[in-house]
Amino acid sequence: MTIKLYVVPGSNPSTSARLALEHKGLDYERVDLIPTIHMAFLRLAGFPGRTVPALKIDGRRIQGSLEVVRALEDLCPDPALFPADPAQRRRAEEAERWGEAIFQPVPRRLAWWAIRRDREALRTFAEGARLHVPIGLAIRAAGPIVRWEIHTHNATEQQVRSDLDALPEMLAKIDAWIDAGVIGNHTPSAADLQIAPSVRLLMCVDQLRPLIVGRPCGELAERVVARFPGRIGAVFPPAWLPSAKAENARASKAEGRANRDQQLHRRSWTHKARQGSDRLEPGERRDHKNGVFGVRRLLPRARARFSRPGQRSKRR
Fold it and tell me: Number of folded domains in the chain?
């Protein structure tokens, strides 16, 4: 049996397919392709689509990380990539589909947007790859490739900012699945192999790595994907980062509390008393008609009236 895997260096779905082959213990030949150019190469190789991973098994052609995993599961059922229990399998498949359709594009868009501003990052992602082209030449000629990938994956500024805003919630969702035992078990499942490479790609970004290291999803990614080449420097504006937004939200909340406390203080009787006198003089009393805890001096005539003997009994 001859197995050939076509990948793009630094591609998170390509890494998922490679991990699945290694989990099954199958020997395969890896073919590294240059981004964008890989689309024409795959068509020439007889594949119907233009995406990686692309797998050829004795002439049979499969594309897409989900499809590759299913094909390998049929080819070699043991060791399994899905739980035997039907309910657990449904949860694992749900996490796998979310990882492929929702989560997988996020680090890819962030990476291409960042690479446009840090072209040397391409060199780090190509580490260990056999591209059959000098890496220096590939980097110098990468401008059109990067622009095309940004266009293909819709890595616009608006979309990238939206991805960064959604990132904390996505990481929390992965952590919750780990806590619930859906993923992150002793034996990796197809969902682990789908999600972990995407987390690992995020960890290649210097500004995003502190958000992930030390939490369950980061530990899962480093355990499942022991090595993931690539590093992207500080290219995102600090105000875009989730950590900065969380800090700004905390500061704004604290400022709002301080303003409310100050307003309450100004309305309190203590503050009113400090503006005048802290003690009431004879003939004064607190009167709500003159404002909250206001003070009004009684009229001398009223005081004299109420001081007459028998006045109150006569009124009664």
Answer: 2
